[in-house]
Amino acid sequence: MAETATSDPTRHDSAPVLEVRGLTKRYGSVVALHDVTLDLIPGQVLALVGDNGAGKSTLLKILSGNATPSEGQLLVNGEPRLFRGPTDASAAGIATVYQDLALALDLDVTSNLFLGREIVTSSLPGRWLKWLDRGEMRRQTQAALDRVHIHVPDINRECGNLSGGQRQAVAIARAVTWCERVLLLDEPTAALGVEQQREVLNLIDHVRSLGTAVVLVSHQLPHVMEIADRIAVLRRGRLAALTDREAVTVERLVGLITGLEGEADGGTDLPASPEREAHGDLG
Ligand SMILES: Nc1ncnc2c1ncn2[C@@H]1O[C@H](COP(=O)(O)OP(=O)(O)OP(=O)(O)O)[C@@H](O)[C@H]1O
Ligand SMILES: [Mg+2]
Questions:
Q1: Measured in angstroms, how far is the CA atom of residue 129 from the centroid of ligand 2?
Q2: 246 lies in a domain?
Q3: What is the whole-number distance in angstroms between the Cα of residue 136 and the centre of ligand 1?
Q4: Cα(276)–Cα(204) distance, integer angstroms
């Protein structure tokens, strides 16, 4: 396997928290991902772009333990890891916010934040009878929201009564609360209004400043250009390019996504070679 983007001096400020090595995923005869290698750096946003069916969600599913690779490896803090399910990924500090968010809309913000991790009161009968410590959970919920600068009108409100942007914010706050190392976001702004999109982008920026490595799947290239530190382009399952944000334009990205760039280069895909990125060939 070729050296990765870590060979770029600018990447050495922080060691990668998660490394993807030669990932291939086959569904029968469909090759959803082919030999993808990249790494995630603490405090950086990696945008993952590509046309419909390019393999973005498949990659997130593997990183979040919801799919197993056909070939290849994941390394967490340099150690090879096999995720047998989402719990393994979660234990490794990886949280995912899916497009459908998976919030329980009939529960309030606090209950959603603590879903499956409820705090019971410390008294003996409380522990036996599993009395929930609502006060403590509320305090921690408010602290978690404050930490990521999220304002919801009332944490006792059912999530079904929150706006789309507020729900998205609660889902991200929950992910950040339980898993601080890696945050995977699949199209977090797709269904939102302009102001809500702005809130989510601000939130991603803030989460990055806390040292979390963020993967942002998005079809909205202006957002990608605004927020990403690096951009990975998937095309038909292959890593067509991995580049610093400063090294590309939206026009160039469109070319890489559609494959027109590759054709201009002689009809083949740009090699999924991080050295290209490391040497700034995409600039
Ligand atoms: N469970 C599955 N079984 C069979 N094929 C699958 C499965 N999941 C994904 N695929 C195929 O793998 C390829 C990549 O799909 P994926 O969902 O990763 O694309 P994507 O980049 O997320 O696209 P979109 O932008 O439309 O969300 C597609 O050809 C898809 O049909
Ligand atoms: Mg997808």
A1: 43
A2: yes
A3: 41
A4: 27
